């Protein structure tokens, strides 16, 4: 009669078999509570930028707006006013753009983050880190360089389509305007996050039509943020450049030095599992010689 091999110690994988706790899947991504904590930290930082701005007044934000417009006119890229006036001639499109600006920025970004966490966990950490890094730098930009959006520059001919059409929008009510930093235009994280979402989905999705839609999303967002007079061209350029740089740095950090970044949490978890697997009352080996 063949003898049955003794069972391995608790918490150790069976020889030639798969450890149930080591199976690939969403469990290989960071814990949900850790990711939610990061969101809370960065939202708090975003809110604080508004408090600092209000305490200093809004005059610097309007001075910076004049600087941006002069520089764009010098470069010949000041297309915001023309797009804004064109949009207002198509009311249904303007209302759609207002809703898109208010919702897509958050809904699509969160959806892409959750999708990567659940379906592409091996790619999650470096992509999440790139998004967090870019957003952290953007928060610093909001604080150091407050900028009034074009829709506040009525003397230049800009019109806020939300106000003009009494439309739904991000700043349609006084409450929403109070809870957001309306002078956080530089850099444009609407443009930056849209580029991040487009890049991630185009890189990881398996269906061609999904990849095509992903590439169209940043272009659509760019049109919306300019035509609704919420951002300048330079805002979008800086926001997209910031995301591009963050993606490159995060990829290098996680792929050229994987043991330093992604390996440390795994080794720490393995040590915790070994400690947890030790039976109570089991004598420990003495470390003394």
Automatic annotation (TrEMBL):
Membrane topology value: Multi-pass membrane protein
Keyword hit for Ribonucleoprotein: no
Domain of life: Bacteria
GO cellular component, one term: membrane
Annotated region (Disordered), positions in chain: 1-27
Location(s), subcellular: Membrane
The entry's keywords: Membrane, Transmembrane, Transmembrane helix
Transmembrane region(s): 36-53, 99-117, 129-148, 183-202, 209-226, 232-254
Biased composition (Pro residues): 1-12
UniProt main location, coarse: membrane
Keyword Membrane annotated: yes
Coiled-coil segments: none
InterPro entries recorded: Aur1/Ipt1, IPC_Synthase-Related
Domain Inositolphosphotransferase Aur1/Ipt1 per the UniProt entry, residue ranges: 67-248
Protein name: PAP2 family protein
Natural source organism: Actinomadura rayongensis
